Amino acid sequence: MSNIGSYEQRLEGFDWNIAKQILNWEEGELLNIGHMCSDRICAQGKADKTALIWEGFSGEKRSYTFDEVRVLSNAYAKFLQDQGVKPGDRVCIFMEKIPALYISFLGILKMGGVAQPLFSAFEHDSLEVRLRSAETKAILTTQKHLKKVRKIIDDLPLDTVICVEGNPAKLKGEEIFFNVDEAQRVDQFECFESGPETPSVLHYTSGTTGQPKGAQHVHGSVFGQALTAHWVLDLQDDDIYWCTADPGWVTGTSYGIIGAWALAATNCVLDSGFTSAKWYQFVQENKVTVWYSAPTAIRSLMRDGTDLVKQYDLSSLRHLCSVGEPLNAEAVVWSEEAFGKPFLDTFWQTETGAMMITNYPGMPVKPGSMGKPFPGIEAAVLDLKTNEPITEPGKVGLIAFRPGWPSMFREYRNQHDVYASKFVGAPADATPEQCRTADDVWYVSGDRASIDPDGYFWFVGRDDDVINTGGHLVGPFEIESALIEHEAIAEAAVIGKPDEVNMEVVKACVVLNPGFEFDDMTELSVMNFIRKKLSPLAMPQEIEVKDKLPKTRSGKILRRYLKALEWGEEVGDLSTLEDD
Ligand code: PRX
Fold first, then answer.
1. β strands within 169-271, DSSP E
2. What is the pTM of this model?
3. Which of 28, 104, 458, 475 is the most exposed place for a label (fewest CB within 10 A)?
């Protein structure tokens, strides 16, 4: 078992410099995540250690040592440079969880580019808004996804399309084929001289209003990611680690790549659809020791029962953690029964870049609670009206954090006002830096919780209309905008509807255009329209036709009213509701 020290020991005299000691990194040295996750590990004598164990959709397997990851990521870095990509340029990675994703991610960072990973299930519209917002210069993708890119490229400032897997003969126009396995070894690459504040990763996340926002991270984030990976995931040198998240979402980069490789852990990736049997088989075969997953997956495993668990040798598992949605107490209790240890809940966000509230190993678990703030994190729940920290145990407020932790997002790309709106105590016209450094400022997460007398945080729900489906945030605005482009739909309001496994699924309430009937054909056509335009995640699982939608007097659709009806909750103050 680990020797990371008790929570209380770690709280005392905590200093983020501990992360530097753990990474053996000294002030003045190169701080580049690409370098720290490959070259440095090799320099520590671990060049031949397995960095990546990968299994694909049809069962094919590959593995890479840290030296291979180093050399191949160099090849990506050099190739991008040769294509004219400059430091600071956004380079999108748009592909399944194939080895090229993980290795090119380091390559982009090595040459100073900003990695912009996007979920490969996104369809052309979802892709377009994110590439447009990021003014993405180059995209790395596979033949399978080229169609979506071709559909939108003419309207974007996207200079370079690189296909890393597929048939080169199928490429069109100026598309370039680059298969790293066939490329020349690049043994030495001079990494871009980044520092703690140099932009590194740009992750898009959904909000209630407007299109998705690009949360910009920096190379200094590695200190937060590595320390939390070491202390909370308890990653040690000999661990075989499996983070089930897709790097299109922040967990898949912060912990599916950076935290793991900065600590030289062997990282496992299974790029195939979910079945409980497949997952257990993967754990058994690779002797996974540390497993980081999400409540939706855990609930799905739970549904398949403990008898299935017993058919596999899962004795290698020594530490389990979860993130992304509320981890219900039953799932924690079940995992003790099934695996002999609980899944430990962790809470954080795209914006925070790393874990904030965690069940620290060794700390007594209160099933259903998210745990306590990670050492070095000052967390509070703020009163809903006064924004003052609540001192009364059990009273619900907004989860907030004192800015200053290393992995905090540095801006929402080109949306300074939205960034400023996430901070209480900062002037409305504050620059992003002022937001983070002004006295008495809180970063407000957009989630509600209460704190019990022992200091444990209990999640209550989101404070906005964002839908969390299976741990993936979906913005209602993006779906509503797409829905009204369908010929049958005049108006739309999108809300989350309770779901046993996914926690929430998307439900659309719509008003039809005159002359349209809502029959099975129309329903199917609307669902498919969204799936093909945005993504399967965004597709409404239910469409309810209404004569009119509830609106405020100023004409804003009141989603919270529809949501309260759906969830059987009190509808609250309706004084702003438009009169009949
Ligand atoms: O609502 C919270 C929920 O997921 C949101 C963050 O989503 P995203 O930025 O996509 O990052 C997900 C992975 C870090 C939060 O605002 N959430 C995350 N973890 C938990 C959670 N809700 C309840 N319990 C958690 N442990």
1. 176-177, 199-205, 213-218, 240-243, 266-270
2. 0.94
3. 28
